[in-house]
Write a structure and sequence with these properties.
With 459 residues, this protein is α+β, with helices and mostly antiparallel strands. The protein is built from 12 helices and 18 strands. The chain has helices spanning 3-15, 44-53, 61-71, 74-85, 94-110, 186-205, 228-235, 284-296, 336-347, 374-389, 404-410, 437-455; strands at 114-118, 139-144, 153-158, 173-174, 180-182, 212-217, 240-243, 253-257, 259-268, 272-273, 306-314, 320-321, 324-333, 358-367, 396-399, 415-416, 423-424, 432-434. A hairpin with a 7-residue loop joins strand 17 (423-424) and strand 18. The chain starts with a helix and ends with a helix. The relative contact order is 0.16. The chain binds zinc ion.
């Protein structure tokens, strides 16, 4: 083993030495680190790295320096995560989103990026929870391209979470053993944002002139309606896309995703008093029921044709024939052919003219499928090579979940999109992070960005 590697391992270990407080002034560390101790045995991660690095020494000296620089920032990464998790960005919380934007973009601007904000596009009003007239966040584009016409990396992050800003689940809580923490958005994707900014700072510190743009939107969890066009425009100006969604439970990198869309079936009837004029009425709810039975026959999960329906709404009272009803649903598809099949089947429910009962189908298949294409596979293999150089493993996976990577790749940008941190419980009050993944995934991201900036993915 080279001397540089021994140093790397020692530093990586020290980053995790039960995460001790480095501030000698602290009797009790405000973020819960243990008091300093004199001698600590190597922890499990350090041993794992010791076991793996021997056989795969593939990092250059400069890359080892990048990894060391990041390992030395383990405490800062966690402190930054505490700050971001404690800043509430769910539910279109303007204050939290704008504060987060300021925190992140000011650091990117300090690295020389030019920050512009792209105005939001409106979203369809028929969407569930589509409140017209509310706060619509802009999309921040922080561009630090170095002039080269190749190796241009677009890093895509979202500042929003699914968590209600009024809920009690509003800060990062570190476990007793210090290995994990719970918090809203800690993996999806505050952890990803934290490591990406730190990775770019570490590259700068190590003298690597990387070629990047960082896009930050705040509506990913609600379908990216406000920012999709901004992302598509950026996709065309770059060569590689890296999105900061959390890794899969085993640390896997997602290389293939289904597409997704939304629909709403709206039915129209004629209202009437149930006791006095029942036969004059035409029930929109009954008509909706017929449509729901039809939709229930549409899925073909073997082929990846998926439709889910609910919630439903119809009729304000029980003693009046309802003249209006609605059902919202979600679809998933592995490719455009199946997407088109679903669209045709849903559209066939529409009635024409003013006949009652009437049916109108609204739909928006806003997340195109993201099949595995050769350019994305090549990019994923580049990421795996970096991971292995760091003594990490990077298996590949596919998922029915969707993200902004779907949009970027359809716009022509080969994209891998689970380069964020590891953890689980996404979109639940049990969302948790593996704390050591902050350093590990930051190292992976930084070295990958450096390699892509330097020459693309020919290897
Ligand atoms: Zn996410």
């Amino acid at each position: 083993m080279s001397k540089a590697h021994t140093t790397l391992i020692a530093l990586t270990e020290s980053a995790y030495l039960g995460r001790e407080c480095k501030n000698l002034q602290h009797k009790t560390c405000p973020i819960g680190f243990k008091p300093r101790s004199k001698k600590i045995p190597p922890n499990a991660l350090g041993r794992a790295i010791l076991g793996l690095v021997d056989s795969r020494v593939t990092l250059t000296q400069q890359e080892q320096l990048i990894a060391q620089t990041i390992a030395s920032k383990a405490d800062a990464l966690l402190e930054d995560l505490i700050l971001h998790v404690g800043t509430k960005t769910g539910g279109f919380n303007e204050q939290g989103i704008e504060h987060t934007r300021e925190l992140l973009t000011s650091r990117l601007v300090a690295l020389g990026a030019k920050h512009t904000q792209v105005d939001p596009d409106p979203k369809p009003e028929w969407l569930l929870g589509g409140k017209p007239g509310g706060y619509m966040p802009t999309t921040s584009i922080c561009e630090r391209l170095n002039g080269a016409r190749s190796g241009r990396v677009l890093i895509a992050g979202h500042m929003d979470t699914v968590h209600d800003p009024a809920s009690d689940f509003n800060k990062l809580t570190i476990s007793d053993d210090g290995k994990t923490a719970l918090g809203p958005g800690c993996v999806d994707m505050k952890g990803g944002l934290v490591i990406a900014v730190a990775a770019l700072e570490a590259l700068e510190e190590c003298g690597v002139s990387a070629n990047w743009t960082f896009s930050l939107n705040a509506d990913e969890e609600t379908g990216t309606y406000h920012s999709a066009q901004a992302l598509r425009d950026q996709a065309k100006l770059h060569d590689f896309g890296l999105a900061l969604e959390p890794a899969m439970p085993g640390g896997e990198l997602v290389v293939e995703r289904m597409g997704a869309g939304q629909f709403m079936i709206e039915t129209f009837g004629k209202s009437a008093h149930v006791g006095r004029a029942f036969t004059d009425g035409i029930s929109a709810v009954t008509k909706l029921g017929e449509c729901l039975v039809a939709v229930g026959g549409m899925p073909d999960p073997q082929r990846g044709r998926i439709l889910n329906i609910g919630p439903l709404k119809g009729g304000p009272v029980t003693n009046g024939v309802p003249d209006h009803a609605q059902a919202w649903g979600n679809v998933r598809f592995p490719d455009q052919t199946i997407a088109d099949e679903i669209a045709t089947m849903l559209d066939a429910l529409n009635t024409s003219g003013d006949t009652l009962p009437g049916v109108k189908v609204h739909r928006s298949f806003n997340r195109p499928a993201k099949p595995l294409i050769p350019a994305t596979e090549s990019l994923a293999l580049q990421a795996r090579a970096v991971a292995e150089g760091l003594g990490q493993k990077l298996p590949f996976a596919k998922t029915g979940g969707v993200c902004d990577g779907n949009i970027l790749q359809q716009a022509g940008l080969p994209t891998i999109d689970t380069l964020g941190v590891r953890g689980g419980g996404l979109h639940t009050p049990d969302e948790w992070i593996e704390i050591p993944s902050l350093v590990e995934r930051c190292q992976l991201l930084a070295i990958l960005i450096a390699r892509l900036s330097a020459g693309g993915s020919e290897s």
